[in-house]
Design brief:
Distance between the termini: 26 Å
Radius of gyration: 14 Å
Strand content: 15-25%
Bound molecules: tetrahydrodeoxyuridine
CATH architecture: 3-Layer(aba) Sandwich
CATH superfamily: Cytidine Deaminase, domain 2
Low-confidence stretches: none
CATH class: Alpha Beta
Length: 137
């Protein structure tokens, strides 16, 4: 279980990643940072496209970054949405993809530009995940 200080550091990485967002259409920047089992950190931002359906969220971008470097298991995730005052959680599609590489107990923190933070877990964001065990076959 990552410490509060580790989650703060992860959130700071997510905030930095949000500055790389390519979001000319929504103007809504998102940054995500994932902590891998070995302590390494992988971040991602949202990358929009003029063909809107091709937009990729920050959370899935971060997963691709880690998996493309050989990581398969992440213990924590932080998400920063500096263009909203309040915290904004991951979309449904990202919750499904994250659950492929994170246990239900994995820590997730998200926050906007205000002081409020939501601290939750993968299992709370994707409850009754009956597909989870499939990954072990
Ligand atoms: N977005 C993310 O990057 N992550 C989420 O969980 C929610 C939405 C992006 C997609 C799009 O570029 C912008 O935020 C507005 O929806």
């Amino acid at each position: 279980m990552p410490s509060n200080e580790q989650m703060d550091a992860l959130f700071a990485e997510a905030r930095k990643a949000a500055d790389f967002a390519y979001a000319p259409y929504s103007k809504f920047r998102v940054g995500a940072a994932l902590l891998a089992e070995d302590g390494s950190v992988f971040s991602g931002c949202n990358v929009e496209n003029r063909s809107f359906g091709l937009t990729i969220c920050a959370e899935r971008n971060a997963i691709w970054q880690g998996v493309a470097r050989g990581k398969r298991f992440f213990t924590a995730l932080a998400i920063s949405t500096p263009d909203s005052d309040e915290p904004v959680g991951p979309c449904g599609a990202c919750r499904q993809v994250l659950s492929e590489f994170m246990d239900p107990s994995a820590a997730i923190r998200f926050g906007g530009s205000g002081a409020a933070r939501v601290d939750t877990t993968m299992g709370e964001l994707l409850p009754h995940d009956s597909l989870h065990e499939l990954a072990k076959f």
